[in-house]
Amino acid sequence: MGTTSQSLESEDRVRALLDAWCRATTAKDIDAIFDCYAPEIVAFDAILQLRFKGTEAYRKHWRECLDSCGAMHFEIHEAEVASAGDVAFVHYMARCGGTGPDGKEHLGWMRATIGCREIEGRWLVTHEHFSAPFDPMSGKSLFELQP
Amino acid sequence: MGTTSQSLESEDRVRALLDAWCRATTAKDIDAIFDCYAPEIVAFDAILQLRFKGTEAYRKHWRECLDSCGAMHFEIHEAEVASAGDVAFVHYMARCGGTGPDGKEHLGWMRATIGCREIEGRWLVTHEHFSAPFDPMSGKSLFELQP
Q: What confidence score (pLDDT) does residue B2 get?
């Protein structure tokens, strides 16, 4: 149940991976972001497409996202890690946004789930899923919700 | 890397859990759905709220969802499982929907990620995340996308 010294060490390493990814995202450093991803990543991003398979497709999407936003704001809250052996998953609440064309920072809450594997001694993200919930009556995403 | 006989057996058991959940959802059998969930589940559902903590809150939400939809349609596609020890995660594409007030079936694609733990010999869902992507320009969810 995740309480052995091995799984505690794995949890620390998964949290370090998450921290590295968050620093890279805030810095808009695409190489450092992709240092966190396994080549075969399957990503469910919050916007535009159902899924991205592999780092080539996902990097193109990330590049477009980084180019279209100003300063990037990303905070990780309530992160919970489950790990055993070479497999881990994490879920957290993300306080995130960026600077709009009006020069103002627009922040909201989203949800994130990350799947990780330890591959050749390195923990890497093999799956990620970001989203905002929507109102089924209007079809509109709900950006104003508070956790 | 998930190729030992133990992890293959775990993968089979996680897939059986997913199948049981899918049958229960299609049958709108809320007790059978909740037989799949750990009491401490943290759920990021596609609609209305950022997250649901624990089966009491999540069951209330499920009850409202089941009451408001007609026949429930749910298919699991492209399911990939990673498991080691007592931890697993799964991601898949869901073809889902229901019968609207017009008597017609409305189906679309969504994304799902599931986190599982083996607890006292039973695999249970401790986390799930369902979503549709949205268009960042309009804020509208994108239900017409094809994988």
A: 44
User: Region A135-139: what's the mean pLDDT?
Assistant: 92
3-class DSSP assignment, residue B141: strand
- The alpha-carbon gap from B32 to the nearest alpha carbon of chain A, in Å, equals 24
Q: Do B139 and A135 touch (CB under 8 A)?
A: no
Q: What are the residue boundaries of the structural domains of chain B, listed by start?
A: 5-131
Buried b (16+ CB within 10 A) or exposed e, A37-51: bbeebbbbbbbbbbb
CB contact under 8 A, A47 and B134: yes
- B5-131, which class in CATH? alpha beta
ipTM of the complex: 0.93
Spatial separation of the C-alpha atoms in residues A128 and A110, rounded to whole Å: 13
- DSSP one-letter code for B57: H
Assess contact for A95 and A109: CB atoms under 8 A: yes
The answer, for B88 touching chain A at a CB cutoff of 8 Å, is yes
- Look at residue A66 and give its three-state secondary structure: helix
pTM: 0.94
Strand, coil or helix: A58: helix
The average pLDDT across A98-118 equals 89
